[in-house]
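Section 3.1: Structural characterization of target chains.
Under the original work plan, the team committed to producing a structural model for every single-chain target entering the pipeline before any wet-lab resources were allocated. The record below documents one such target. The sequence was received from the expression subgroup and is listed exactly as submitted; it comprises 471 residues.
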Amino acid sequence: MVLRRSAERAAKQIIWLGYLLLPIAGFSFAWWLRFRSGLFEVVDFQPFPKYHIPIIIVAAFWAIVYGARGLHSPDFSVNFWREGLRIIWASILAMILPMALAFTYRGYFYSRLVMIMGAGSSAILCFAYKQAVKSVLRKMVLRKIGVARKLIIGCDNFAQQIIDSIRKDRLSAAGLVGMVSIRGERCTADLPYLGELENLREILINGQYDEVILASPQVDEQTILKIIYECRKEQIQFSLVPKFWHLLKGRVSIEQSGELRVIAFKDLALKGWQRTLKRIMDIVVSLVMLVVLSPLFGLIALLIKVTSKGPVFFKQERIGRNGRKFIMLKFRSMYEDAEKRLEEYLAKNEVEGPIFKIKDDPRITPVGKFLRRYSLDELPQLINVLLGQMSLVGPRPPLEREVKEYEEWQLRRIDVTPGMTGLWQVSGRSDLPFSQMVQLDIYYIEHWSIWLDIKILLKTIPAVLSGKGAY
């Protein structure tokens, strides 16, 4: 909950009104473009008054569909790309019935080009309008205008974890007001202390809160019911953070099982048509890149061979999907005896966690430094991708000795096929701590989509060219 109910209602009305008026502007512009702009040949001129009523009908239907799809809600958790995709689908649905009526109506033959251009321009206008409204609302929330006031019940270390998690989102954090303690609890959290749970009624009446968040797993059922009762009387939203809240980062839903409502954890691993689609993309892209980049492969191989002794390719056993081992290929960027000298430098590791990295590794050749800076040493892994051992996008494949040092929750990153690039590579690469790398990998596994893969691949290009965090 980010906005107060009154502010959210007002925002919904403003956005919905835009969805009603903007299609009128969009289809009117399409008529002008078709018949008045001079860009198209006009054989049979159609006067604008003929379009008055159809445009109004389409605009009304447009607003109804957009509203039914929930697009009038200022959902701040929906990102730019997902919002655009939702707008496109809603626009297609909004045009199905009007176009069907226009094609079956015998009284007048309306221009199909006007309909198509009108739908496109209206979708663009609605998308831009929604983003503009959300931008204004964000600025208001950050200035604490219309922000939902949140009260945390609990003030120990568990509550502090929840507060820290909320603070990762500036919009959600803007409404944090204070905390209430539970009897016998030692307060260590860093929110303003507002009193004890026994005085919750007075605190709620005087504080004008919009949401109460129970952040203590020690509260008994009877006390929870009393808190809910007090919240309902004051029309305040009640939220409960369970002890296992960190497990709920994936795809979960509340489902009915008889008379029970249960939390259902969705299968996170890619499977079925999703895995097939991802595999098709891996094969096509890797094959094309291997052909296109073959001259570069030859040049790199020549440079490696001329400047240092040893093979062109470096082969190393890595852990793939579900713990399967495979041989990963790289262009050799180190001297031939690098693996034997590893023990000498383990104490100089500059990266937290089980992985080993040092910025000025003396085992790296001069050519190797250049290859690593721009990730050119990784290009032979396109062969691994073509063979199905790796994917274009996914968690980086670890070494067996690294996996042995993983904590249990970190093992989830080897549930899927490893990749050449991933979220952590486009978010800082080796500059990120290992724990954050794993969190980004798990986020990718839990939120996979073909669009996320494409987005990561596009972001990989500037990340590689910048050379930042690569060593």
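DSSP finds 16 helices and eleven strands in the chain.
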